[in-house]
Every structure is written in structure tokens, then in C-alpha cells.
Write a structure and sequence with these properties.
By secondary structure, this protein is α/β, with parallel strands linked by helices. The protein is built from 8 helices and 7 strands; from the N terminus they run βαβαβαβαβαβαααβ. The chain has one domain: NAD(P)-binding Rossmann-like Domain (Rossmann fold, 3-Layer(aba) Sandwich), CATH 3.40.50. 42% of the residues lie in helices and 14% in strands. Strands 3-2-1-4-5-6-7 form a 7-stranded parallel beta sheet, sandwiched between helices. The structure holds NADP nicotinamide-adenine-dinucleotide phosphate.
Length: 264
């Protein structure tokens, strides 16, 4: 039997960018806690087996296509979610990506692409979600944004990405203040390096993978379920007095100044 503070039965969540990678881990963890789930991504092709897996946890699951860098899609995806799951009170703004090139080569277009998806997308989706919740009732809800450990410390070569994640950290605090009196908690997940298609380049570079594994005090790269389960905490009764926070899930990477020196 599940612990009631982590039980999401009867609830529903919209998770943006959830057809693979971290978003899929978030969707699966929420479904395992009993939550109905609306998946989102731009392409529908990977979706049918995902819906079948989620429904195997005895929850309802659907998919709505939409590009979260497009303002019209931010609103349409939220509207479709409320139409299918009228009780929805959990939003996870996960859709985000990395468009950086070398700083001196970086174009205004790539900078804008980063902020359109990683920052404006989260802003507009949260705004549409909170407006729709308020039209339905005054119960409030849970908003979980997607930051990154890069909001706290940089790896280099990622100026626009890091700036976008720093913006999410600031937006989390600002939204927590604005929406707390309306009954919403607003927090952000800040994962370190997690195995997803976005980080699949590690498979081609075993020395780099070993380096990153050794850099984390827990000596490994994170897995998507480890981020998903943190979202269950923030969405459930357990997280009811937590707001305005970054929840760092990075194996201790950002706890240290620099990794320990090698032997010798
Ligand atoms: N992986 C990491 O180590 C790590 C660490 C810290 C933070 N993060 C953050 O976690 C989030 C997810 O990262 P990830 O590694 O899981 O990425 P990913 O492997 O690239 O997953 C992308 C998911 O988002 C969807 N997506 C991509 N662009 C989209 C768009 N414009 N609109 C809607 N959906 C879109 C993809 O489906 P389609 O391609 O069909 O659209 C897919 O479902 C990002 O915000 C990222 O910054 C990741």
C-alpha cells in the first residue's frame, strides 16, 4: 500500500516534453503514484506504447501534440489537458533543450530559440495553467518547472542554456511569491547529468562518461526515475509546504568545489 503523502490517485498532471527522456521519467513516476497523465511532444510516433505502459498502472493517459516554443501551442496544450482531465492540478514544465554553439559563433537566433523554449514556454504554459485552474475553482495546484544544476554552476560552452536555467531559478521564486496566496506551490527540479537522448553523446565518448561519473560524489550518472520520484514528492501531500525552491538531483555534483584530485 502506498504512503498517503505520496499518493496521487484522483489527480491529473500535464507534463510537457514527455515522450522520451526526463519528461517520460516524470510521467511514469507520476502514473505509478496513481496520477492521470497528459503527455506532450511535437511528434506522435513514439506515443502508442507509452500510453499502453502508463495505462498499465491503472491510470488514464493521453497525448497532445504541441511545440512548447510556440505561444499558441502553450495555450492549446493546456486547453486540451483541461478538456480531457478536468481535475488537472499538477503542471510539470519539462520541455527544454540545448542549442548552444561556441560563444563566439553563437547567433541571436540560437539564443532566442533557447529562451523561447526553455523560458518563455515555461512562463506561458504556467500562466495558461493557472488561469484555467482559477476559472475552475480556487483550490490552487502544483507547478514544477525544469531548471538544471547549470542554474547553479556552469560546465562552460553553454552560455545561453545556463542563462535560461538561471532564469527559471529566478522565475520559480517570483512565481512562488505571486501564486502562493492563490494556493499554488511553485518549485523547480535541478538535475545534474541524467541519461537521456539529450545526453546520448556520452555513449560515443566512454572516457567523458567515466569522467562525469567520477566527478559526482555518488560516482554515477543519474537516471530518469530518480528525477521523476522527486516530482512525486513535490506534487503530493508531502510537498504541501515547499515552495520557491530548486530541488537539486545531481549525485552531489554541485556540493563540491572541484572533484577530488587523482591519486599520486
Ligand atoms: N538530461 C539531462 O542531463 C538534464 C539535466 C538537467 C536538466 N535537463 C532538462 O530536462 C528537460 C528535458 O531534458 P531531456 O534530457 O529529457 O531532453 P530530451 O531527451 O531531448 O527529451 C525531449 C522531450 O521533449 C520533447 N520536446 C523537445 N522539444 C520540444 C518542444 N519544442 N515542444 C514540446 N516538446 C518538445 C521531445 O519530443 P519531440 O522531439 O517529439 O518534441 C521529448 O519528449 C530539459 O528542460 C532539460 O534542459 C536535462
Amino acid at each position: 500500500m502506498s504512503h498517503p503523502s505520496f499518493d496521487l490517485r484522483g489527480r491529473a498532471a500535464l507534463i510537457t516534453g514527455s515522450t522520451y527522456g526526463l519528461g517520460w521519467g516524470l510521467a511514469r513516476a507520476l502514473a505509478r503514484a496513481g496520477c492521470d497523465v497528459m503527455l506532450n511532444g511535437r511528434r506522435p510516433d513514439p506515443v502508442p506504447p507509452l500510453l499502453a505502459e502508463l495505462r498499465g498502472y491503472d491510470v488514464a493517459a493521453e497525448f497532445v501534440a504541441g511545440d512548447m516554443s510556440q505561444p499558441a501551442d502553450n495555450a492549446a496544450v493546456v486547453a486540451a489537458t483541461f478538456a480531457r482531465f478536468p481535475q488537472v492540478d499538477i503542471l510539470v514544465c519539462n520541455a527544454g533543450s540545448f542549442f548552444d554553439t561556441d560563444f563566439l559563433e553563437m547567433t541571436a537566433a540560437r539564443f532566442d530559440q533557447t529562451f523561447a523554449l526553455n523560458v518563455r514556454g515555461q512562463f506561458l504554459t504556467t500562466q495558461a495553467f493557472v488561469q484555467a485552474c482559477r476559472q475552475r475553482d480556487e483550490q490552487g495546484g502544483r507547478v514544477i518547472l525544469m531548471a538544471s544544476a547549470n542554474a547553479l554552476q556552469s560546465e562552460g560552452g553553454s552560455v545561453a542554456y545556463d542563462a535560461s536555467k538561471g532564469a527559471i531559478a529566478a522565475m520559480t521564486r517570483a512565481l512562488a511569491i505571486d501564486l502562493g496566496p492563490l494556493g499554488f506551490t511553485v518549485n523547480a527540479l535541478a538535475p545534474g547529468l541524467i541519461d537521456t537522448p539529450l545526453t546520448s553523446w556520452l555513449a560515443q565518448r566512454p572516457a567523458a562518461r567515466a569522467h562525469y561519473e567520477q566527478a559526482a560524489p555518488l560516482r554515477r550518472i543519474g537516471q530518469i526515475d530518480e528525477v521523476g520520484e522527486a516530482a512525486v514528492y513535490l506534487a503530493g501531500a508531502a510537498g504541501r509546504y515547499v515552495t520557491g525552491q530548486l530541488l537539486v538531483i545531481d549525485g552531489g555534483l554541485t556540493a563540491q568545489q572541484i572533484p577530488p584530485a587523482p591519486e599520486g
